[in-house]
Design brief:
The protein is built from two helices and four strands; from the N terminus they run αβββαβ. The protein is an alpha+beta fold. The protein has one domain. The protein has a four-stranded antiparallel sheet. β1 and β2 form a beta hairpin. The protein starts with a helix and ends with a strand. The protein binds zinc ion.
Length: about 70
Amino acid sequence: MTRDKAVASGNAVTFRGRGLGLRLGTRLVVLVCPLCSQRNAQRGAERGICEWCAYVPSLRDAERVEET
Ligand SMILES: [Zn+2]
């Protein structure tokens, strides 16, 4: 998913201003990892972690992305 599509969905979040994810209820999906900046693999995204560095997103770190 592109950043534009994620933002348009209304569920886009960053993790303290970095990376890109989706908030689905209480679940967080990592699309772009804030730690290693890698675009996450589908498998990792579905598990809610970064497939590259095993980053686990926290709801505390998730900040809603406003559509501009
Ligand atoms: Zn990572």
